[in-house]
Design goal:
The chain is mainly beta. Helices cover about 0% and strands about 55% of the residues. It has strands spanning about 5, 10-15, 20-25, 35-40, 45-50, 55-60, 65-70, 75-80, 90-100, 100-105, 110-115.
Length: about 120
């Protein structure tokens, strides 16, 4: 059974930084891509950043220049470095992994940014 476990969320003041981590277990092969999504109250879940097995990355416009995704896809781990956090970044952040179109999800970790 595949499990994605996130860590690193919490409360922080605006302008500060947080680093999220995600480790996957139970999958014998490397994923095609890993990503971070987030969902704020009463909003749809949205892609924050994705890293593919070849190393390419993409970001939501709202986090470009502030967030950096990194990881070792071969080891099924991914990180999200979040700098210059804003109150609008407050959300539950979910780790996601893709295996030939099939998505796996973590339970989510809360990030709260106070103004």
């Amino acid at each position: 059974q595949v499990q994605l476990v996130e860590s690193g969320g919490g409360w922080v003041q605006a302008g500060r930084s947080l680093r999220l981590s995600c480790a996957a277990s139970g999958h014998v092969s490397s994923f095609n891509a890993m990503a971070w999504y987030r969902q704020a109250p009463e909003k749809q879940r949205e892609l924050v950043a994705r890293i593919r097995s070849g190393g390419s990355t993409n970001y939501a416009d709202s986090v470009k220049g502030r967030f950096t995704i990194s990881g070792d896809i071969a080891a099924n781990t991914v990180y999200l470095e979040m700098n210059s956090l804003k109150a609008d970044d407050t959300a539950v952040y979910y780790c996601n992994a893709e295996w030939y179109g099939y998505p796996y999800w973590g339970q989510g970790t809360q990030v709260t940014v106070s103004p």
